[in-house]
Amino acid sequence: MATVADAQLNPTARERLFFFVMALAIAATVVSGFSLQLAMHRSTFAAPWWVHIHGLTFMGWLGIYLTQNWLAWRGDIVKHQRVGRVAAGYVGWMVLVGLSVNTLAAIHHRIPPFFETNVFLVMDWLTVLVFAGLTWAAVRLRGRTDWHRRLMLCGAIQVMTPGIGRLLPLPLMGSWQLWGIWAVLLPFIGAAAIYDIRTRGKIHPAYLIGFGTITLAVALMRPLAFTPPMLALTRYLVG
């Protein structure tokens, strides 16, 4: 089992430890966002069953991501690979749940009033699709560990969006809501970039591709939300 002392001497163990710590930070941030809303009585367990399915599904992914990084840190690569095969299929379930539940939220008028419905839908749909794309790309490149770890991290950073949104004063941010959430992602990718500079001498291109994709998606969200087809779809869904 890799220890902190080993990580100080062994570059491989040190990198595994870094990604495990990042996974812990991501999970803690997301849990904090949802816990804050519960503590402030803005969220309730008295929600439709499909809302609970959505929450359990995405919290389940956090558990899987933590487990995978813990197994890698321990050096248990065989179990890591076994869980990885399940996780790759689980992402497909997340896409199905994410796209359908957010659509149901529009139909049943459960979208937060401080969000424009069309913007909320595009934001959530693109978030889920970008997450899945980055994660599946990481799975495809699992033989190249440096790319695999970093693209997985980018996917995990992207899927933090719902938790971060619950930590921010979104009702006060107007049309800057999307970029406000994006700004909170920056310290996470920044920490990863700094780690690369200190240990590798440069930022790995996986971060440029991964976070570049996230940034492009954010830039496109509002323009896509106000296209005639999206406005028509929104009117159809909300009745």
Automatic annotation (TrEMBL):
Q: TM segments?
A: 17-40, 46-66, 87-107, 119-139, 151-170, 176-195, 207-226
State the source organism's domain of life.
Bacteria
Q: What is this protein called?
A: DUF2306 domain-containing protein
- Per UniProt, which keywords does this protein have? Membrane, Transmembrane, Transmembrane helix
The scientific name of the source species is Sphingomonas oligophenolica
